[in-house]
Amino acid sequence: MNRGIPINIIRFILLVLVQVLVFNRLNFFGFINPMVYIMFLYWYPIKEKRAVFIGLSFLLGLSVDFLSDTMAIHAAATTTIAYLRPAIMRFVFGINYEFQSFKLSNTTKAQQFTFLALLILVHHSVYFSMEIFSIANLLLIVKKVLSNGLASLILCLLFSTLFSVKKE
Amino acid sequence: MQQIINFIIRYKNLLLYILLMIISLAFTIQSHSYHQSRFFNSSSWVAGNIYGFSHSFNTYFDLDDENERLLKENERLRNKLFNTTTSPSVEVDSSLRYTVISGQVIKNSYADPRNYITINRGENDSISQDMGVITDLGILGIVENTSNKFATVQSILNTKSNINAKIKNTNHFGSLIWDTKTYNTVQLIDIPRLVPLNIGDTIVTGAMSSIFPENIPIGTIKKFDLDISKSFYKIDVNLFNDMTNIKNVYIIKNLDRKEILDLEEATSNE
User: Fold this and answer.
1) Engineered SS bond to B153: which of B34, B116, B141, B233, CB 3.0-4.6 Å?
2) What's the whole-number mean pLDDT along residues B74-98?
3) Which DSSP string do the residues of B27-59 spell out, in sequence order?
4) pLDDT digits 0-9 by tens, B144-163
5) Strand partners, B235
6) Which of A162, A168, A166 is nearest to A36 (CA)?
7) Residue A88 in contact with residue A115, Cβ under 8 Å?
8) What is the spatial distance between Cα A86 and Cα A41, in angstroms, rounded to a whole number?
9) If you average pLDDT over every residue of chain B, what do you get?
């Protein structure tokens, strides 16, 4: 995986910059800001060490926090999906994702879609619960998770098609 | 001992996750109760320069609009200047209470429950914590963190914001807070029931604050209701400022602030 390291570093930096300089300023309908940096976790190689992956995700979230004055909310949400990613993958792709020959590009479109949607759903649930921080506003949390989640999903799907790993 | 090590090795991912989660929760909760952590805000050198860089591109796109706004403001100030009869002695008044420093917004946010604005003035321009920030239309927020070249401003669209405000031409004052619902409305609470109110009345800053001068415009009354206790009003205030479109700001330094705070502290310690 020597080739993977520089690609992931560049991806890390570009996604953080795109997130804070473009998508955090979108404010569609006044409150919708899609979070595209989740794509880092979607693209990250599966067979790498898990501890490194969780640490990197924490750093990714923290970098976004650092640039958008949100304390450490992004970091918490991103660490959560990094930790849960193997469980989500087992749920979506079945047991065969653990095989050596498994590649994200070999799976069906529906599987990729479900995988991405679950990542976004968990991430946004954690993020907005921590941002609003009160059970009394449960309805507001649900509203924000759904509307922002939909926007993130659409943009992430566009990203995944636009920058898809070349078909083999 | 062997078992403990085995346990740690076996659950190292879970333990790592829990550790990182506790770190992020600690940062978040700590800043819920007090000023933001020194390291996690966009007044830092790295973040300030990234936003400053993108700001230097963005400014070109609305130069026309900004010029128009500044021209309007100059026109209004000149109108005021020519129509006031000032004696020369007033102009050399030595009892200066406020100094004003101009600055520009390099990062704005208004969609979160706690919004912060980053400006391109910092300690080098003698900006320090708890200075008021206004635009030509009305108030914007209070300086929260500073670095050498940048500062973050706690916007009035922030659940932690609490600013003394009053109804224009009266002395009934209350607190200005934000319920996070919409970015063009804030709430004024603790105005007693006996105060006569009208929709459209102007709300301005009060004299109780050692941060803002008195009578800086905030907004107009949109609607008002009695709160749960039935003895105070809860007023929705339409902001004069368009919080989504802010470029040039003025930072106000109250030269008497230290003296006021020292005096208040001495009094409360007695």
Assistant:
1) B141
2) 68
3) HHHHHHHSSPPSSSSTTSHHHHHHHHHHHHHHG
4) 888 888 899 999 998 888 89
5) B188, B224
6) A162
7) yes
8) 11
9) 83
Q: Other CB atoms closer than 10 Å to residue B156's CB: what's the count?
A: 26
CA dihedral B217, B218, B220, B222 (to 10 degrees): 180
Nearest 5°: the CA angle A141, B34, B117 is 70
Q: Which residues of B touch A55 (CB under 8 A)?
A: 16, 20
- For residue A80, what is the nearest residue in chain B, using CA coordinates? B17
Q: Can you read off the two tokens belonging to residue B237?
A: 């205030």
E strand or H helix that includes residue B190:
strand B185-192
Name B221's bridge partners: B237
* CA pair distance B33, B124, nearest whole angstrom: 29
Q: Which of B14, B28, B49 to mutate to test the interface with A (most CBs of A within 10 A)?
A: B28
Query: For residue B106, what is the enclosing H or E element?
Result: strand B98-107
Q: Are B187 and B194 in contact (CB under 8 A)?
A: no
Give the nearest chain B residue to A61 (CA atoms). Answer: B24
Per-domain boundaries in chain B: 40-83+103-255
Is B17 near chain A, with CB under 8 Å? yes
What are the tens digits of pLDDT across the range B166-208? Answer: 888 888 888 999 988 888 899 998 888 888 888 888 999 888 8
Using the structure block, give the residue that is written with the tokens 């007090």: B34
Maximum separation of any 2 CA atoms in chain B, in Å? 89
Which option is the CATH number for B40-83+103-255: 3.40.190.10, 3.30.300.30, 2.40.10.350, 3.40.630.10?
2.40.10.350
Q: Residue A21: in which H helix or E strand, if any?
A: helix A4-21
Report whether pLDDT(B92) > 90.
no
The token pair at B207 is: 């004299």
Q: Which of A120, A104, A71 is nearest to B39 (CA)?
A: A71
Other Cβ atoms less than 10 A from the Cβ of B254: the count is 19
Residue type, A11: R
- Residue B150 tokens, joined: 């940048």
pLDDT at A152 (0 to 100): 92
ipTM score for this prediction: 0.79
Confidence bin at A100 (pLDDT 50/70/90): low
